[in-house]
Amino acid sequence: MSERVTVSFTLNGAARRVSVPPMKRLLDVLREDCRATGTKEGCGEGECGACTVLLDGLPVNACLVPAVHADGAKVVTVEGLAKNDRLSGLQQAFVDLGAAQCGMCTPGMLVTSAALLATCKGRVPSDGEVREALAGTLCRCTGYQKIVEAVQAAAAPKRAKAKPAGAKAKAKPKAKRAVRAAKAKPKAAKRKPAAARAKAKRTTRRTSRGRA
Length: 212
Ligand code: FES
Ligand code: FES
Hints:
Layout: E1 5-11, E2 14-20, H1 26-33, E3 52-55, E4 58-61, E5 74-76, H2 89-96, H3 106-120, H4 127-133, H5 145-155, H6 157-161, H7 173-190, H8 194-211
Parallel strand pairs: 1-5
Antiparallel strand pairs: 1-2, 3-4, 3-5
Helix pairs in contact: 2-5, 3-5
The structure holds FE2/S2 (inorganic) cluster (2 copies).
One FE2/S2 (inorganic) cluster binds next to loops.
């Protein structure tokens, strides 16, 4: 029988204990033994960052980390970002701003961004900071700009929603309808009454018969 070791760690806040071969990758332990399949495997060689998870708060490539290194540690995967089946602000920003497309890189992007935002403590990171933090995670779909914008929006959701100083209040839908109706009325008022239209028709017919 092949050698196995017991590894105990916290996965997304819950205690886990697995018995695995000593060199089994953390990525495989998460996906196969813990059924946490949100973490993806891209290259399997530490190049793409798709497998990124947080190990004691720091992003690591789970395809390069033997599971024994997680013994006693806190592991956070993409599944750990949502609370009570509600997406986190960061996840929602990715959805709203089109930062997730095929989704292959998204779990790695999200946990790495979450680690960055934890260090920012409400400050909006600069473009450069976000790009540097995400440099080890590759995306073939988004061109990165939408991801940068989503991370920044998640850093200051209140500021993003707040109206800029001096901005005019947006007309409410009801008010907009009233404005449209008011604009439409003059046109209707210009229409001749039905009797006048009928008279005009009769005159036109008589004129055209006279010409025939
Ligand atoms: S799968 Fe781990 S870095 Fe690509
Ligand atoms: S969304 Fe497709 S690789 Fe990033």
